[in-house]
Structure formats: C-alpha cells, structure tokens
Input
Amino acid sequence: MPRNILNLPDYAVLGVEEAEHDYHIQAEAILPPTHCQYCQSADLVGFGRREQLVKDLPMHGKRVGIYVSTRRMKCRACERTFSEALPGVDEKRAMTTRLVDWIGKSAIKKTFSGIAEEVGVVEGTVRAIFADYVAEREQHLKFETPKWMGIDEIHLTKPRGVVTNVQNNTLVEILRDRNKKTVADYLFRLPSRDKVELVAMDMWVPYRDAVLAVMPQAEIIIDKFHVLKLANEAMEKTRKSIRAELDTKQRRGLMHDRFVLLKRTAELTDQEALLLDGWIKNYPLLGEAYRLKEAFFGIYDAKSVDDAKRRYRDWHMSVTPALHPYFADVIRAWTNWQPFILAYFDHPVTNAYTESLNSLIRLMSRVGRGYSFEALRAKMLFAEGAHKHTLSRPKFERKQLEPVAVEETPRWGFYVPEMARALPDEIGRMPPAPRPAREPSTKTPKNYGADLSTLARLIEDGEL
Output
C-alpha cells in the first residue's frame, strides 16, 4: 500500500476501502507524542488507542474519510492522560486543515449545499467554515481607500449601500443597509479617509449627511444619471396620462413605442424618428414633454457651472403649467440639491460603474437563491482573481533621455581627453563597474477592490 496516497507526509496509510461514493482510509500518525501537553514531561507511556474519523479533500470524485488510530498517552510525572494531537487536522473540526481551506475558497464560487454533498458534511458546517474564512480574509485583505468614491444602493431583500472606486471601476464594499449611521461608521473606519477627494452619489440624504459629517473635505457630486432619470420618469408620467384617453389599439401602440420617447433625438433611427413624429403630431402635450426632456438632457452639455445655471433657468421658464405636475420632481430635486448637482460641471465624475455593478449583484442574487447577505457580499468582494492591483491610469513617467553619441567614449561612459592620456592603456580598457543589485521590494501590493468587468466575466462564465 503506498504511503503517500493521501499526500500527507505525517501519516502512514494502513489500509484503504473503496465504496461507490467514498474512500475509507485507515491511517496513523507516524511520530508518537514526545512530551506531555500539560507539564511538558517526556516520561510518557501508552494508554490505549481510539479511532477518530477525519474528513479530507475529495479524491477521484469520491468523498474521503480518514480513520485515524489515535494514541492515548499517560504522563508519569503529572498522572494525566491525553490524546495525541493530530498533525494537519483543524482544531475546531474533525477535518484536515487543507479541507477547511478548500471549503472556504470553494464557497466563493460554489453553493453551500453543493459543497456539503461533495465533501460529505452538513450544509451548516460549510456555512460556519465560510464565515470563518470571510472573517480571516477581512483581517488580511484591505482595499485602498478610493480618491474618487461612488456610493449607491442595491435592493437585495432591502436596500443595501454599495461603495465603489470610481477611478478604478472596482467594488470596495457592500453595506448591510443605507442608513446614515451605517454609512458614517464605514467611512469613519476608512484608513486615510482625508484623502478622499470626490464622492459621487444619488440624491439620498443619509449619504450626503454621512459624507459631510465624516469627510468634510470631499466634494459631493450628484450622479448625472440619477438626475437625468427624473426627466425620463417625467416623460413616462406624461405618456401614461395620455394613455388613458386612447382606445385599446392606440394604448398598446403607445406602450410598445415608449422606448422611442426615452431615446435622445440624435440616437433615433429613421424608423424611430417617424414613429416619434406621429405621436408628437397627434398628441401635442406628448411632444412638448419630449422637448422638455431633451432640453433638460441638454443642460449636461454645458461647459461650465455658469452655463449650466443659465441653461437650467431657461429650461425652468419653459415648463408650461400643463406639464409642471409631471416635471415637479425634476424641479424639486434641482432646487434641493443644486450645489451638488452643479459640482459635476467642475468635476465630471459619474457613478455609471456602480449602476453596472448593481446589475451584476442582481444577477448574482438570482443565481445564488437563498444566499444570505453575508454570503453574497463575500462572493462579490473576495472572488479569486477579480482584484485589481494597479491604477486604471498609470502615474506620469518622466521620458527617458536619448543617449548622446560622443567620439571615442571609453567603457566607463564619459570621455575626458586629458584624463585618458594620463591613464595607462590597460586602465582605459577596464570593463564597467557592476551595478549594485536592486533589493526586492518589501511593500505589500496595493489592492483597489474587485474589478467590475472581471466580476461580470466570472458570473457570465459560471465561475462565481
């Protein structure tokens, strides 16, 4: 019988039984205990054996159970008995440490129930190991505090806060909720939080208040897509109000063509432009709402804060009384959040990547039905191979100077005629001095979070 069938050098394999789904392996530790675990005396005698079942990594598609013949020892010095410590076995569970590590890492990509069936343990054990794995990862895996931060939300059973590194398109954290205290506590614990320069967010008061309280130096920017979304919603409200006046056929047609009303004029195809023209001519109020929606989008073509103010003022004055109720939310949002909306025109930072992340998390939630919040968060944050360790845009590098060709340059790299004439020929032919070896860097690589595009690929490929 090969001794290394388990690839555990501290054990001797005594026998193997193969069943349909399992391997039953008899083994014992090679080296017996040498000292008492209580008084450290070396005066030990055997005190019998007992069999312990230890689960190990699956092998050849089958579950593995190691039946370890464990020695019982008695210390003659202190008269106490104890069982030998089993090398490579987890202290908390009857399984090898390598199995515990494998379960923790595999639970990022596989379901708990699937792992439990593959290994031969109950699902609760997998959940407990995964919880320990996540806690250990959080102790050692630290993401860089983003200079440009994004704060948004995702609905998973209830609203959750999502924090991203906008500059690097990475996921940094998923918060249990979006309350001010939760967000403020997270921001307060951030290392170097005073280095955060910009924070893009939606119009949620707790986000704003938390940032103002904890990071007053950061510039708050309301994400343009959340503002423009209100204009599209106003367009939809107008369409729905008109739909009530239509017959069944017209109502279905307007519902089918709704996407045309939400498109920008420059993006319409010829067929879509024809459809839009028909609806606008037949329903002037719909046409006026579309014009207002397009004009509001045009505010974001402004080149400066003053230009944006002027465009909004002109737009606001053009809102007719008939359409004011539908665009009331747009006007209210601009009035209440104006300084933070206008900040975009000084710093055109958006939260678009956070929105794409929300789509990924929704997909992940559907794929992993029944996942707890903690499990879903860990799967997104700690996915193997998804972390980004370099800036999206490298630092400025000084250009390298072109070597200057000089006449009769000696090997040491410069030429001084008087010095060359004063030195013996053999010195002039000396090889260049060796450069000192560069010492390896001891700095820990920076981690900017889970890359969104990589997460998308992992989910699409079924690896997460």
Summary: Residues 42 and 287 are 94 Å apart (CA to CA).
